[in-house]
Amino acid sequence: MDRIIFHIDVNSAYLSWSALDKLERGSEIDLRTIPAIIGGDMAKRHGVVLAKSIPAKAYGITTGEPIVNAMRKCPSLLVEQPDHSLYNRRSTELMHLLSDICPDIEQVSVDECYMDYTPISRLFPSPETAADYIRTQVYEKLGFTVNVGISDRKVLAKMASDFKKPNLTHTLYSYEIQEKMWSMPVSSLFMCGRSSVSALRNLGIITIGDLARTDIDILTSNLKSHGKLLWEYANGIDDSIVETVRSEAKGIGNSTTMSHDVTGRQEAQHILLELSDSVAKRLRESGLTAEMISVEIKYNNFKKVSHQTTLDSPTSGSDTIYRTACSLFDEFWDNTPIRLLGIRSSKLLSAKEPVQLSLFSMPNLNSQNISSSHRISEEKEALLEKSLDSIRKKYGADSVVRGSMLKR
Questions:
Q1: Which of 219, 277, 221 lies closest to 253, judged by CA?
Q2: pLDDT tens-digit profile of 152-192?
Q3: What is the C-alpha to C-alpha distance for residues 38 and 28, in angstroms, rounded to an integer?
Q4: How far apart are CA 53 and CA 32, in angstroms?
Q5: Which site among 80, 158, 261, 407 is 20 to 30 Å from 247 CA-CA?
Q6: What stretches of 131-181 adopt beta strand conformation (E)?
Q7: Would you give the DSSP letter of residue 405?
Q8: Please, which contacts does 164-171 make with residues 24 or more away whose CB atoms are closer than 8 Å?
Q9: How far apart are the C-alpha atoms of 41 and 245, rounded to whole Å?
Q10: Residues carrying an active site annotation
Q11: Residue 39 contacts residue 82 (beta carbons within 8 Å)
């Protein structure tokens, strides 16, 4: 059969997960049914909209706009602050459920993933039936809704999942792009950001169809290689495959967009600690270790910078990743307010592979091993991480938490 790919996306993930948490704690208000957003501090009214309810969307509120603007559009708007620890837990629950349905998934963010339909195709009469089954399972077992996009191309599956919401299945096969996609504005195209939209409008390109029919040389002369990428996506050209965690060769990472500008080193370090725990956990679950760690920063002026370093020996330990990330952060942060922080591990190896010792871990001919205490510390860290993983798997993600992660 031809390749079929699903893109599974949680509907208003942050808001849905916060709504469920409040209901489980006894709240009589479901954030999903009223004008509500997840964002910054309601009292101070700063930050941006991270997620919105459908009633809030009816007021013209958009993701990414300042909360002050959203409050002007809807004075009765309810603002909830984000809880990224909660969102990571919900994300883990979702990925475990989806992995039980089909093991070939590629998680691309906290609330979305791709799934290869091929391994489960014999179990369902059609891809649409399988997608409806997935949506039903997520809602019945986890309490929130997802959209499922179906296509023979990853980028088109992503586009399809962004069609009408919530809790729906949509198809966008290669032969359907002219009918379903070309009439849409270029701003709807995956990877077409504001600067690209502005550049395309200057060329008279308004719809995705306009883009698809434009001479590629004109696009590359104005938007360089990104112009070619957008042209390919507009024409449904995408040969990438679903890369499962088991075969992930490039790296494992995680990032988070803050609801407000981070201006202090201490707050940034707290976020780096959460990200380090998440990346380390995914490495251990995948049976991998990493030789390289990189840190990414996106400033509030949308400028992106990153820095990376190679470790003396590969690791999957949270503390080692955290110490390395903090060191990198201190090297290149220029005190500009931060909107996004990310950590990525790369140069991955199987955790079962023998580790080549560095010069600093070799025995000293004239004295005891100069790094023996460091190596023992790493061994203790590995044993501790293994024990914590076992406890959390048995009793839940919140059974053991760092003291610094507890809410004040």
A1: 277
A2: 999 999 999 999 999 999 999 999 999 999 999 999 999 99
A3: 18
A4: 5
A5: 158
A6: 146-151, 169-171
A7: G
A8: 165/11, 165/54, 166/11, 166/12, 166/54, 167/11, 167/135, 167/139, 168/135, 169/128, 169/131, 169/132, 169/135, 171/127, 171/128
A9: 36
A10: 112
A11: yes
